[in-house]
Fold this sequence. Notes:
Blueprint lengths: L5 E2 L11 E7 L7 E2 L3 E8 L1 E6 L2 E6 L3 E4 L5 E5 L12 E8 L15 H9 L4 E3 L3 H12 L4 H16 L4 E3 L12 H15 L7 H7 L4 H12 L3 H19 L4 H7 L5 H12 L3 H10 L1
Parallel strand pairs: 1-3
Antiparallel strand pairs: 2-9, 4-7, 4-9, 5-6, 5-8, 7-10, 10-11
Amino acid sequence: MPNRPDRLLVPQQPNRSFDLRHERVAGFLNPWHFHPEIELNYVVSSAGMRFIGHSIERFSGGEIVLLGSNLPHYWKNDAVAGQPDRPLLAEAIIARFAPEFAGEAFWELPEIKPIQRLLQRAGVGLKLLEPLRTEVAQQLEGLLSLSGLAQLTGLLHILDRIAHSDTLAPISPGYLPEYHQNRQSERLSRVIGHLLQHVSQPVSLDEVAGLANMNPAAFCRYFKSQMGQTLTQYVTELRIRYACDLLTRTDESITVVSEQAGFENVSYFVQAFRKKQGVTPARFRQQFRSV
């Protein structure tokens, strides 16, 4: 995997104003990446971990998210996705369009203002909740059978419906997609991409500082000024989120979960987990399974 998010080139088709695709693959292949296009992503079927901005959470079939311009993301399927006896495990409907796809004057129309505000809010990623999720899932499936103007107006209708709903949840609050707009911020995107993709592996301060082209002491000051927490605190939070996923979907022992989440010491893992989640890992698993 790359150490920084790749810029994905979304195909531009001369006969269409936006990119709409229906993927059926063994596993989602795009690595940690970003693109200026807005993305509406409906995972029809699959399961694993998704990384959006600073967020690392579990995803499963049925989830729909709206991603703003230049918001880095990728979906990492569970290991089962590569088994040859189950070749088609990941399915998604994805619509991508440039912020200016309809022209600047279009966004000045009063009827379009709610959609414009929605796309601005999507800069941190938005997850659709019920009952909106079910409604939009059906509309996206219907969009595949349309063409021409009907398909375009169908997309606008979906966006307008989302814009007027309050059943949305931010995915990565506080994330600033502008990190990818200038050279100074590019160093942070390289570091975040590396940490997200290697969340369960040992972190070398020298290696991470090298990604930012800084010496370790300067990097530590820089990271805290940008992220509001130390590198150790950030990595620990990522690993605890990953441990939560392992605790909820596996029967592995607390010691094994600790190791798989990147903690070298199970006692420290339990202490850090309790501080962050308010309960021990064992209690967290028990509470989840009693729901």
